[in-house]
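Lecture 7 notes: from sequence to structure.
We start with the chain below.
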Amino acid sequence: MTVNDPNAIPEMKLDQENLYHEETFSDLKMGWIRRLTPVNPDGTRDKRRESIFIGQTQLASPQGPIPIQCQIQAKTLPEALKKFPEYMEMTMKQMVERAMELKREASSRIITP
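Predicted structure tokens for the same chain:
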């Protein structure tokens, strides 16, 4: 949502064609999987759309916890549970690579006399 006029109040209206019911599954240790099930405006299951699975975990760092989240390509909860470790590892590797890339870019901007 973008507000160009600081005095304007944006219309707070949900997209009724893109509603999801959210459920969270957790082992209370490693992470969570959220299942977003598409629903119609009356709350019934929208069978035209697939559920979405989102994996979440946190890494401990000296600066505090680092949240990690990614979509897991799965059709069922058991499939999402099975794929969770693979997707979290892949996402962590991408985060580390991106951090290293940003560090290289920042160090290349340093100009010494």
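Points to note: Residues 19-105 form one domain. The chain has one domain: 19-105.
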